[in-house]
Amino acid sequence: MNKTLEFYQRSVQKMHCYATPLLLLFTRFWVASVFLRSGYLKITTWDSTLYLFEEEYQVPFLPWEMAAYLGTAAELIIPIFLLFGLLTRPMAAVLFAFNIMAVISYPVLWEGGFYDHKLWGLMMLINLFWGAGSISLDQLLKKHFLIK
Residue 89: which of 46, 133, 59 has the closest Cα? Predict the structure, then answer.
């Protein structure tokens, strides 16, 4: 029985060693692609974006025009950090807060798109708590600057 348990434990550890970096890479890429596409759509249809921020979205604390510029910039810049796995934890935290703001600002989302935002939020939390994993610039920089 002990040999079976040891074999099981070794198998799980090996699987964990290979699967975890891939899971973290997948969550980073998935969330980055969603927000990059959204930012691209906003910037390529700028008149529509301004209209939505002025008339539809109810962003608290910010004037609508500033919210449009900051929101679009966030959707185009922050995901690039996630793609490369650079400053992953702080960028995931910022994007997580941004995601919450999007849900609060657009109540129409609650009926149809709320599930997606919860999924993206969970993916960002995974990277916030576990980091970027071994397939990232964070890991390369950590090895270069901390281990000599």
Answer: 133
Arithmetic mean of pLDDT, 125-142: 95
Whole-number percent of the chain with pLDDT over 90 = 70
What are the structure tokens assigned to 128, written together?
């916030």
Q: Are 106 and 71 in contact (CB under 8 A)?
A: no
**pLDDT tens string 70-108:** 999 999 999 999 999 999 999 999 999 999 998 888 877
- Judge whether 55 and 67 are in contact, CB under 8 Å: no
Backbone angles phi, psi at 46, to 5 degrees: -60, -40
- Looking at residue 66, its amino acid is M
The Cα 121–Cα 102 span in angstroms is: 11
Secondary structure (3-state) at 5: helix
Neighbours of 49 (CB within 10 A): 19
55 secondary structure, DSSP code:
I
Q: What is the rounded CA–CA span in Å between residue 43 and residue 66?
A: 14
